[in-house]
Amino acid sequence: MLSRRQFLQGLALSGVAGCASNSRSTLVDPDSTYSLVSETFASKVPPAGKYPLTTAQILDIPYATLGVRVGENPRGVMVLSTIDGKAHQWISNDFVSFVTLDGWLLKTHGLKRDLAATRWLPAAGQNPLAAFGQTGELPARGVYREIDLKHADERGIAVESRFESAKDETIVVLGEEHLTRRIDEIASVRAWHWEVRNKFWVDPESGKVRRSVQQYCPEIAPIEMEVLRPAAA
To answer: Is there a contact between 212 and 201 (Cβ–Cβ < 8 Å)?
Structure first.
């Protein structure tokens, strides 16, 4: 297996770098990993809705991975870079980075209008959907977070949320089926006279978000994220 230093050197070419996941990491062959870096660098734009790598190639990456699509752009694979408490930072081949917490998008870097920060209000905790896995009840309507945006220096923007639960849905990630419960957040920003429906596909037992479509401002298209390989516990 490639050392962390060797693997990080490939970041300049392919964006494949990150914080190792314990699962499967000992099964990765150094030659196949080096080849993966080369193929990712040389790969052409994939068809709409497809990843630039095959399922086998993605599973051969010895790091936690996140599938991402912004609007109608091609899908990409982001790799876990750092973990800070429960927050996970992911990085792409063009050095766009996201910070997530329990499936929620908290921060971005490299988009035309970045989400600079998300602050959960003290009474809300850090994940309005966390209790769903334990009680099956949706969070009450309320203001759970404030956000800051770059490029316009808007700060302390209150986001009011109400939640709706849809029926159980089976989603397919890298060819594997997962039973989930879809929960929609109707997020309202009164300062902008703007409302958006964010969607979360939640594991009904653990409460973990397996897939989501989130939009944090009108200027940025909805961002789809799905866990391809979770970070090691």
So the answer is: yes
* Cβ-based burial of 107 (10 A; exposed 0-12, middle 13-18, buried ≥19): buried
Residue 28 has pLDDT above 70, yes or no: no
Q: How many domains does the chain have?
A: 1
**Could you give the strand order of the β-sheet that contains 76-84, starting from the edge strand earlier in sequence?**
104-109, 97-101, 87-91, 76-84, 65-70, 223-229, 209-214, 194-202, 176-189, 154-173, 142-149, 115-120
Which residue range(s) make up the domain with 78?
4-229
Mean residue pLDDT across the chain: 80
Q: Which of 37-41, 142-146, 166-170 has the lowest mean pLDDT?
A: 37-41
* 152: CATH: 2.40.360.10
pLDDT of residue 141: 85
- DSSP output for 148-185: EETTTTEEEEEEEEEEEEEEEEEEEETTEEEEEEEEEE
**Strand segments (E) across the chain:** 65-70, 76-84, 87-91, 97-101, 104-109, 115-120, 142-149, 154-173, 176-189, 194-202, 209-214, 223-229
